Amino acid sequence: MLQPKKVKYRKTFRGKNRGKAMRGGEIVFGEYGLRAMSLGEISARQIEAARKKITYATKREGKYWIKVFPHKPLTQKALGVKMGSGKGAIEQYVAPVKPGFILFEIGGVSETLAKSALHKAAAKLSVKTEFVKKN
Fold first, then answer.
1. CA nearest neighbour of 130 among 63, 20, 33, 54
2. Residue 129 near residue 75 (C-beta atoms within 8 A)
3. Other CB atoms closer than 10 Å to residue 125's CB: what's the count?
4. Over the stretch 78-105, which tens digit does the pLDDT of each residue have?
5. Domains of the chain (ranges plus CATH)?
6. Is the whole-model pTM more than 0.90?
7. What is the mean pLDDT of the chain?
């Protein structure tokens, strides 16, 4: 699964995720893409599941690009631990996503195959998405 090799601070604040994507909204590498339509956080497990589904659906034809990376750590305290005693251990890494951001790109395959593969991958993600073509 994806996670950062090295970080400056091990645990981060939750922060706020709002607004629209200011960058990353254009298809750069491939011909077709999967665009996020809602705010949310995509976990490393969801990204991996979507990647596997794209690979299986395209039968390793063409090429795909993953444009999201889970760099934000989420912590969780162990079950039965009392209040206080600091912040919990890192449970998983997530990628904060804003509407308009391109999550995956595919190139070198037909439009119907790309649409099918990205639709199957979208079922694995926790945000609403749409299929887009390069202008």
1. 33
2. no
3. 21
4. 999 999 999 999 999 999 999 999 999 9
5. 32-77+88-133 (3.90.1170.10)
6. yes
7. 96
Buried/exposed 79-113: b ≥16 CB within 10 Å, e otherwise: eeeeeeeeeeeeebbbbbbbbbbbbbbbbebeeeb
Report the pLDDT averaged over residues 31-46: 98
Q: Which residues pair with 132 in a beta bridge?
A: 33
Helix axes 111-122, 44-58, angle to 10 degrees: 150
Query: CA-to-CA distance for 89 and 59, rounded, in angstroms?
Result: 38
Place of tokens 């039968």: 59
Each residue's pLDDT tens digit, 103-120 = 999 999 999 999 999 999
